[in-house]
Write a structure and sequence with these properties.
This protein has one domain (about 5-30, about 40-130): STM4215-like, CATH 3.30.2000.10. The protein has a five-stranded mixed β-sheet. The N and C termini lie close together (about 10 Å). The protein is α+β, with helices and mostly antiparallel strands and about 130 residues long. About 25% of the residues lie in helices and about 40% in strands.
Length: about 130
């Protein structure tokens, strides 16, 4: 399983995150008209940003680092802050059969005045076993 799909699986397997987003975890784009009806918020959109291969002196690339961006969307800043805390707790330091580790790199809060939604952009490095 690729790092992006493994992270999606970790998010949906976390009871606290799953209860808040109700399955609304999407690749690349937020569906049109996320405010509904029915509302698709809060939601998480994920994408791979960079894939880095670590090659040792013997030519082995045992670990692949994947930088992932998660955009969290909500109608209020309080809802966004709550989701941000849950996602951070669920992912930072997490491992799975497909991932050697996931680590937080950065976060940025924003407001999209066009769609009138709050957004946090979170970057994570996920390390998976090379294929």
């Amino acid at each position: 399983m690729t790092a992006d799909l493994a992270v999606r699986t970790l998010l949906l397997a976390n009871a606290s995150v799953a209860a808040v987003v109700a399955g609304h975890v999407y690749p690349l784009v937020l569906p049109q008209n996320p405010q509904g009806p029915p509302s698709l918020l809060p939601a998480i959109v994920y994408q791979r940003v960079t894939v880095l291969s670590a090659v040792d002196q013997d030519g082995n690339d045992d670990v692949v680092g994947v930088r992932l961006q998660l955009d969290l969307w909500a109608q209020t800043f309080d809802a966004l802050a709550s989701l941000r805390a849950l996602v951070s707790a669920a992912l930072n330091g997490a491992t799975s059969p497909d991932l050697q580790g996931v680590f937080s790199e950065s976060e940025q809060d924003m407001y999209d005045s066009e769609v009138k939604l709050y957004r946090t952009s979170m970057d994570f490095m996920a390390f998976e076993a090379a294929a």
